[in-house]
Design a protein that fits this description.
alpha+beta, Arc Repressor Mutant, subunit A, Alpha-Beta Plaits, four-stranded antiparallel sheet, 9 helices, 10 strands, 23% strand
Length: 250
Amino acid sequence: MAGHSKWKQIKRQKAVTDARRGAVFTKLGREVTVAARTGGPDPDSNARLRLAILKARESNMPVDVIERAISKATGEADAGQLDEVTYEGYAPGGAAVLVEALTDNRNRTVAEVRNAFGRGGGNLGEAGSVAWVFSTRGLITLTLARGADADEVALAAIDAGAEDFVAEGDTLSVYTRPDDLEAVRKALIEAGHAPASAEIARVPSSTVSLDEREAVQTLRLLDRLEELDDVQRVYSNADFPDAVLSAYAG
């Protein structure tokens, strides 16, 4: 899964310097609003909201913008109805693609997603066509300090309830059950290992290896999907060649 995991790491790095920061803040704000609307405005009793706020802060989203997003859920600010929808499809080379969106107009969003798949050489599939490839898991990513032992950090995570980990270079990815994500994150912080990110993610059970041409096409498709205003997250089980990822990162 090396090529797949590296793609996720590069995405995070690119997001930090994304020139479209306003669009990023809009998406993060929508997630905060929906989380607050679903589970209440108190992050102490709403795990989804805690994670949404954490992710917003990781992207340097201003506190007042976060608070305004929460107020939309409580009726203190104008807010339209946002529906959570998932789309499934295939990228060039047959890799599975899962798209999560928040929208106030389902017809508009599905048309935009279908168009993105078509222009990117992929196909929008039926509900259930690829969702079975992915499982919902907690994912904590850490950048290891120089000299840090990945196995030692991973052992601390496992002792706190983590299920698995993958070490690649100076990056450690820790996987947990969704309900255990917060406990493991806090345990790592207390042990002196501050995570770079923590989220509930869709993790593929298997991957599809792509050749160079298919990999480039798929990366462009995933970027095109993520640039859509209504799309919150995009997942794929594509396994990309290192050479293609290096060029993409640059």
